[in-house]
Model the fold of this input.
Amino acid sequence: MPTLTIKIPLFEPTNVKKEMYETMRSNFSDACNQAIQLKKDDSKMKASEIDKQLGHFLLPSTLVQEARKLAVSRYQDWNKNKKTKGFPRFKKKISIPFNNQNWRLRFDNGFLKLGIPTLEEGNLTVDKYVPLKTNNYSLFWVNFLLHGEMDKKSKFFNKSYETISKPRKSNGHLFFKNGKWFFSFVISFVSQNEVLHSKAIGVDRGLKYIAVAGDSETGDYLHFDGKNIGHIRRKFSRLRRILMKNRNLKALKRLENKEQRIIQNWNHVISKQIVEFAQKCGASIIKIEDLSNIRSMKKFWKSADRNINSWAFFDLELKLTYKAQLAELVVQKVNPFKTSQECSKCGNTKKMNRRGSLYSCSCGYKKNADVNASFVISTRPSINENLTAA
Ligand SMILES: [Zn+2]
Done:
C-alpha cells in the first residue's frame, strides 16, 4: 500500500503546552528505558506486567503501551545481535508515537486542529485540540484524508493521483526539531496500479535458512535462521531414511504427517512475520522465486527429503499468499535463475562469488549470501508482468 508522510508544525503552542510536551517526551523516554530494562532482566515478562510496572509514569495509558511496544521490539532486535550491538538506550529527545486510533484532525474556526492524548486530565475533548500551522501542500493532503476527495484544481494535484483512493490515517509522531514542535503522520492509500509502481521486498527460501526477507532499498532484512528447525528436520530426515530402507510405509506416513504439522506451524509464524516486515518497509509487493519448475528446486533436494522439502516450500508460499492478501499486499513470482550468484549491488553474476554463506563480489560488495539473494529477488521483474508485456 503506498503511503505518504506529512509533517506540520504546531501553531504557536503556549508555554504551558510546550512544557507539558517536554515532560511527556521525557517521561516517555524514561518509560522506554525502564521497559527495556525489565525485558532484559526477565525476557519472559508479559506485556500486561510491563505496563503495570510502568504505571508510575505520568503518561496517558496509550503511551505506556507504545513505550512498551517500542522497548520490546528494540530489545528483540538487540537480543538477536547481542555480540555486536551495545544495549540500547532511548534518548531524552525521542519522538512520541501515536497509533492511528490515537490522533485526530478536525477543522475548527479556520484552523486545522490536532487531538492527541496528553497529560491533561479528562477525556480528549474538542477544547483540548491544538492548532497546526498548515500550508497549501499539507492542506491538500489533509483535505483528501478527511473528505476522501482530491482537489483537482490544486497545483499539488498530479494526474497520477487519479488512481489512488480511500486514504486512511496510519501512525503519527510528535517531535521537537529546530526549535519547533511538529506532528507528522502517515496517510496510506489504495491504488489501482500499485502493483506496477510500488515497492517490493524479496524473500529467499532455502533449507539451511528457511527464509530471508530483504528490502534492497534500505538494506533491512529479516532472517529466519533455522537452527532449531534444521535440527528437527535433520532428525526427521534420518528417521525417514531408516524407515524407507526398511520399507515401513505405515510408520513413514505417520512420520510425514507429524513433520508436516510442525512445518505448517513454522510457516504460519514465518509468513506472518514476512508480511509484517513488508508493511514495516512500506512495501506492497512480496517477491518470491517461482519454484514450480523442477530444475529450480534441484539445488535444495536430497532424494530422501525431496517430497517433504518441496511440500514445505509450497506450504510457505500458500500461507504467505493468503496472509499477504489479508493485508492487501501482493505476492509475485520471479525467475529463480542464478539468484544466488548475482550481485545485488552491481548486477554481476558469478558462481564463485558465493562461498558458503558469504557473498563477495569484485565490486567490493560483501553480504550474507541469502540476504543478497533476497535483495536480488526483490528487484527482479515479476513473471506475470513479463507475460502481460509480451
Ligand atoms: Zn558486485
About this structure: Residues 343, 345-346, 348, 361, 363, 365 surround zinc ion (CB under 6 Å).
